[in-house]
Each structure stands twice: as structure tokens, then as C-alpha cells.
Amino acid sequence: MINMGLVRFFFLLPSLLVCTLLLNGCSSLNGTRLEPLMGADVNLVKLGDKIAQTLIEQAVPPLFPRQPEQPIIVTTLVDNQQLNQTSDFGRNLQNTITSGFVKKGYISREIKLRGNVLVQANVGEFMLSRDLNEIADKQNAQAVVVGTYTMTNRMMYLSIRLVTPQDRTIRAAYDDRLYLDENTLRMLNLQFKSQDSSMVKPPEESFIDKIFY
After folding, report:
1. For 124, which DSSP code?
2. How far is CA 84 from the centre of its chain?
């Protein structure tokens, strides 16, 4: 015998999903024809949690939680095309990634990199290598999170790595593509402009990948 309640549920399911999207929005719909109706801001809190969770799950060898003497250091994300530059977006995402590790039981120490410690153009590999060794010596970090972002129109490509500072071994990686909203563009000092997504150019190879791969 057919369960009519179950049949009605399956008929109503698409409508319920649409209503949920309308209420909550979805940043994955940004850049599509549905963006004006169901697009949403990029949630940096959820993104930071997702990045931390991915790095924890992928890490080989695994990270050790609740180790005050061996913290995880999250550095400021920098612009892949201007390696001496960061932004409100880079600093904000650094903070939410740090919070993501802490919420999952991992010890992290806040580190604010000065201008002369950020990776510099043309000497990026030397600067990054030196700074990782500096962090390892001073903080006794079990791992360091480093990352860059690349902008093409409204599209951002994230490249984030969990690195052992002593030998620069990549233990985990997170890569993502975000279609930014008006608020996150302002954090990058950019203005919202309607662009045809087909015109988006492919990103350049990540500076971090050039060093570690």
C-alpha cells in the first residue's frame, strides 16, 4: 500500500528546499542568475571553521590537540599578486581560522606580523623560509598555517597550507574558489560591479605552491 503521507512529503520537498534557500541564502549561488534572489554574503566565520576542520582532518602526521607548549600559528593571508600586501579580508580570515582551531581543542597563539616580516616581492621564498624558522624557534609551533588569495573580477581563489616550519613540509592543504559579495569586496577595498562570470580569467599559480611543490 502506498503511504500517501510519504508521497506528499516528496512532492513538497522541492518547495521546502526553495523556501530554505530563500530564507538563508547561499553564497554558492553568487555569480549565477539566482544571485539576486538567493545569493548571500560569504560567511567568513563558517569559512574559517571549514578551513580549520579540513586542515585538521588532512594533517599527516596528525596534529596534537591541547598542547600549550606546541601551538598552531595562523599567519595573515596575503595577496598572491602583491605579496607585501594584505587586507581586512586577509586579517579577518586569519582570525576566524584561528578561532576554528581553538574551538576544536587546539592551542593557538596570536601573532601579528609586522610589515617587514610579511613576504616581499622578488624575495618571497627567502622571506617565507626565514619567517617560518623564526616562528618555529620562538613559538615552538607544531605547525604554521600560511595562505594567499588571488582576485580575478569578483572571483577569489584561496590557497592555504598547513606547514611544518622546521622543514617546510606541507601536511595539509585547502583550496577554494569564492564568488565575493559586496561586503567582502569592501574588505579588499574593491567595489561591487556586475560581471559576466564567463569573463573570469584563470588564476595565477599560487606563490605558496611555487615554494613548496
Report:
1. H
2. 18
> pLDDT tens digits, residue range 5-37?
554 545 555 554 554 444 445 545 455 554 444
* Continuous segment of H or E residues that includes residue 169: strand 169-179
Helix 88-103, helix 44-58: angle, nearest 10: 60
Give CA–CA dist 86/120, Å, rounded. 11
Q: What is the pTM of this model?
A: 0.72
- The H-or-E segment that residue 9 falls in is helix 4-24
Sign of torsion over alpha carbons 199, 200, 204, 205: negative
Instruction: Please say whether the dihedral angle defined by the alpha carbons of residues 57, 62, 64 and 69, taken in this order, is positive or negative.
Output: negative
User: Tell me: the pLDDT tens digits for 145-172?
Assistant: 999 999 888 889 999 999 998 888 999 9
Domain 41-212 class, CATH top level: alpha beta
Distance CA 73, CA 101 (A): 10
- Domain segments of the chain: what residues? 1-40, 41-212
